[in-house]
Amino acid sequence: MVSNYPVYAVILAGGQGTRLWPISRRSRPKQFLDLTGNGRTMLQETVRRALHLTGSIQQVLVLAGREQEEWVKEQLPDLPQTNILLEPVSRNTAPGLGLAAFFLSNMPGMLDDAVMLSLPVDHMFKDEEPWFLALHTAIQAASRTDALVAVGIQPTFPATGYGYQQLGEKVDSGSSLSVHRVLKFIEKPSSEVAREFLESGQYLWNTGTYAWKLSVFLSSLKTHVQSIYSGLESLGTPPDIHKLEQVYPSLENISIDHALMEKAANVLTVSSNFERIDVGSLDSLAEIWENDQEGNTGFGNFLFLESSGNIIYNDEGLVTLLGVNDLVVVRTSGVILVCPRDRIQEIKDLVGNLPGKGLEEFL
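^ thats the sequence. predicted structure below, dont judge the formating
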């Protein structure tokens, strides 16, 4: 399945990954780490997949924070310097994708109908082929229509931490996968509502992965988020990177889902069933690494005895657990974390207390 137009992938590689603390820290956020042991970081893996869709490293852009520039260069030596977009401050995905779209639109010879992809950097896949099929279907739908195209996956349990897409009528996809109009985006419902969504069969999990024509995206941004569009437009043609320092911090801090996808009427979604691992918290690591018969899993040197359901990350020496269950133990340079698995979601609160205790160096 081939797009009628060139495809450009924008990889969202900023952020600090605080929910994965202390593995992910300011000194080395999660996207720049090898969490699988295969020798490639999450950023490198995302670029590898993107190259299968674009065909050229020249058509891959990486959006990151200014403080992350050297990591991007170090891990992606073949990526052109001009394809690294650095945010002066983090302003969420709507300004970030808008910035990428303005830069793309000013590239020499760029077509208005080139297809732009938005790819999160922190997704892993147990089987990549279904993901590639979903992305090729999304690219085809975006190139054939004037729609903003999302990629959704069939929910397998009533998750309250994911966004959902309500499915409307089916449209011609030219693929083995179904493509539907999206009636509504719903962010993180209650457990009761999530259960209703699952039982209805009319909802997909939103993966935060998108495809659209460059012209369609810029037009939609202008219609629904005028302030962001005007701010980015004021950077000039081509965008003035020095002026960006003054303009970007003033842009609204808002996700592309809230800013655009929830408001636009011309939204389609690809219904897929690939297994995505969203590496957002320590609990997700249990899906990446192999589990023993007692449900223990780990990275680095470790030993379990009469223990079950534990997660270990160890980057130096040896960590052993004896007679304990359902713990998370993380040992990194300078920081050790021990907590029950059922309190992982509170780690972000713990990290938030570090500055007040004079412990910012450990962020």
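Residues 9 and 117 are 5 Å apart (CA to CA).
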